[in-house]
Design brief:
The complex is a heterodimer of chains A (151) and B (314). By secondary structure, chain A is an alpha+beta fold. Chain A has helices at 11-23, 88-94, 139-149; strands at residues 3-8, 26-28, 34-37, 45-49, 55-59, 65-69, 72-77, 80-84, 100-104, 107-110, 114-120, 124-129, 133-137. In chain A, the strands form four sheets. A five-stranded antiparallel sheet of chain A has the order 8-7-6-10-9. In chain A, strands 2-1-3 form a three-stranded parallel sheet, with helices on one face. A three-stranded antiparallel sheet of chain A has the order 11-12-13. Classes of the chains: A alpha+beta (151), B mainly alpha (314).
Chain lengths: 151, 314
C-alpha cells in the first residue's frame, strides 16, 4: 500500500528524514494525508491551491485568516482565497501562536492583519481584517482571547 | 417640578447619556484593543463594553421601576391597570393580591435553589447561572398561575383556605411539565437530563416543605413587602426583555450569515455527506438554542428560519 506522508520540518533535516521514510516504504509528498511534523517548527510557506486550481506557495506572513469550510481550509490572503485539504487543528499547530490566534470554532486569524475590532454585547468581539474579511470572537474563545492580550 | 417630572427627566437623561457613553466607550475600546492586539502593548484591564452598557441599562430600569411605583402611589393609573394590580376585595390600599407575592416568592426561591444546584454541579460559583432570566420566567409563569387561582377562588372558595397547599400542587405540576418539555424539546444528553430532573425534584421537595410550613402561619404580609416583591418582578421582566432581545438579534444575524453561506454552496458541495451531517446538527440545535436563550422577541422569525433549513436539507 502506498502511504503518502507530508513532512513538516526544518530544511536541514528534510533530506535525511525523506530518505528514512522512503526506506520504510512511505512516499513523501506535499499533498500527503499523514503529517509528520517537528515540534516547535512553523513552516514559512504553505502549498495551497488558488481559485483556478493551481498549486502555489503562500507565505505565512501573508495569511490574514484561515477558516475551515467543509473538509477544506480556506486561506484568506491579499484579498484572495486559497484552498488546502487539511484539518484546522493540524494547521493551528503549524502556525506560531504568537501571531495566530484561534477566534472561533472554525477560524484562526493573524493578529498583525487585524484592521478593526468592535466590542459587541454578549461577550463577543467583531473583527475586521485586511481585505475586509469579517469574523468574530465567539463566546467560547472570548475569555482566552482577552487573557492572551491582557485586555 | 413634581416627583414624577424629576423621575421622567432622569429616565430620559439616563437613556441619552447612556447611548452617548456606550457609543463613545465602544469607539475608545475599539482603538485601545486594536493597539494592544496588533502592537502587543499592555495596559490596565478595561471594563467590558457589556459592563458599561449594563450599568446604564440598570440605571434606566431602576428609574422605570421608580416611575411605576410613583404612578401607583399617585393612583393615576388607568382603570384596566388598576384592576390587575389591586385587590378590589381588600380595597386599593393593598397593592397586588396575596397570590402574587406568594407565587413571586416561590419563583425567587426556586431560582436561588437552581443557582445553588448549578454551583454544586460545576463546583464553582458560576456567575453565568446567576441570570435574571430564570427569575423573570418563574415570576411570569407563577403570576399567571396565581391569577388563575385568584379567579378560581371566586368559583371554589376552598382555594383561598388552602392557598399554600394549592400553590404547591400547581407549582409541582408546572415544574414537572416544564422539565418534561425541556427534556423533549432540547434533546439533552442523558447526564444533563439527570441533573435537570434531580434539580427539579430537589426544588419541588423544598418548595413543598416551604408551602407546608407557610400554611401554619398567617398569609398576610405587610404592604411594603408586596411592593418590594412586585418591584423585583417588574425589574426582572424588563431587564430580561432587553437582554434577550439583544441576544435574539445577534442570534438571527448569525443565522442569516449561515443562510447566506449555504446559498453560496454548489450543488456538489450540498450533497457532500459530511456537510449534510454538519448542517443537520446545526439544524437540530436550533430549537434548543431558541428554547434556552431566545424565548421572547421575534417569535415569527424562528419558524421562518426553521422552514428554510428544512427545505434546504431535503
Amino acid at each position: 500500500m502506498d502511504v503518502k506522508v507530508r513532512l513538516c520540518c526544518r530544511e536541514e533535516k528534510r533530506e535525511e528524514l525523506e530518505r528514512m521514510l522512503r526506506a520504510g516504504g512511505f512516499t513523501v509528498s506535499a499533498d500527503g494525508e499523514l503529517v509528520l511534523s517537528e515540534e516547535n517548527f512553523f513552516p514559512d510557506r504553505f502549498l495551497v491551491q488558488n481559485e483556478r486550481g493551481e498549486n502555489v506557495l503562500l507565505d505565512r506572513e501573508e495569511i490574514a485568516m484561515v477558516e475551515s469550510f467543509n473538509h477544506d481550509l480556506i486561506f484568506h490572503s491579499r484579498g484572495e482565497k486559497f484552498r488546502l485539504r487539511e484539518r484546522l487543528y493540524v494547521i493551528e499547530g503549524e502556525l506560531p501562536s504568537d501571531d495566530f490566534v484561534r477566534v472561533n470554532q472554525s477560524a484562526i486569524i493573524n493578529r498583525k492583519k487585524l484592521v478593526k475590532i468592535v466590542p459587541a454585547l454578549g461577550s463577543r468581539f467583531e473583527l475586521i481584517l485586511e481585505g475586509g474579511i469579517r469574523t468574530s470572537v465567539s463566546r467560547t474563545y472570548y475569555a482566552e482571547f482577552k487573557r492572551r492580550f491582557g485586555i | 417640578m413634581s416627583v414624577m417630572g424629576i423621575l421622567l427627566l432622569s429616565f430620559f437623561g439616563v437613556l441619552l447619556l447612556g447611548a452617548g457613553a456606550c457609543y463613545g466607550y465602544r469607539l475608545l475600546l475599539s482603538r485601545v484593543l486594536l493597539s494592544r492586539i496588533r502592537d502587543g502593548k499592555r495596559g490596565v484591564k478595561l471594563p467590558s463594553y457589556t459592563t458599561v452598557f449594563s450599568f446604564f441599562l440598570f440605571a434606566a430600569l431602576v428609574l422605570l421601576v421608580m416611575i411605576f411605583f410613583q404612578a401607583l402611589y399617585q393612583r393615576d393609573m388607568p382603570e384596566s391597570v388598576k384592576f390587575f394590580l389591586t385587590d378590589q376585595q381588600w380595597g386599593y390600599n393593598r397593592i397586588l393580591p396575596r397570590y402574587l407575592w406568594v407565587f413571586t416568592l416561590v419563583g425567587v426561591f426556586d431560582w436561588l435553589l437552581h443557582y445553588l444546584f448549578d454551583c454544586v454541579r460545576h463546583k464553582s460559583f458560576r456567575l453565568n447561572s446567576f441570570g435574571v432570566f430564570p427569575v423573570a420566567l418563574h415570576v411570569i409563569l407563577l403570576v399567571a398561575v396565581g391569577y388563575l387561582l385568584y379567579l378560581l377562588e371566586h368559583v371554589i372558595p376552598a382555594f383561598g383556605d388552602h392557598l399554600y397547599l394549592c400553590t404547591a400542587i400547581v407549582y409541582c405540576a408546572c415544574a414537572v411539565l416544564w422539565t418534561a418539555g425541556k427534556a423533549i424539546l432540547c434533546k439533552r444528553r442523558r447526564k444533563e437530563l439527570l441533573w435537570d430532573f434531580g434539580r427539579t425534584f430537589f426544588t419541588l421537595a423544598s418548595v413543598l416543605l416551604l408551602m407546608f410550613l407557610g400554611s401554619f402561619y398567617s398569609r398576610e404580609l405587610p404592604p411594603v413587602a408586596e411592593w418590594i416583591v412586585g418591584g423585583c418582578a417588574l425589574f426582572g421582566l424588563l431587564f430580561d426583555l432587553v437582554r434577550s432581545s439583544v441576544q435574539t438579534v445577534n442570534f438571527f444575524s448569525e443565522l442569516r450569515a449561515q443562510e447566506e453561506e449555504f446559498a453560496k454552496r454548489t450543488q456538489e458541495e450540498r450533497e457532500d455527506e459530511a456537510f449534510k451531517g454538519e448542517m443537520k446538527e446545526a439544524l437540530s440545535q436550533l430549537p434548543q438554542r431558541f428554547f434556552l436563550h431566545y424565548r421572547w422577541a421575534l417569535l415569527w422569525k424562528f419558524p421562518h428560519s426553521l422552514a428554510f433549513w428544512e427545505r434546504e436539507m431535503k
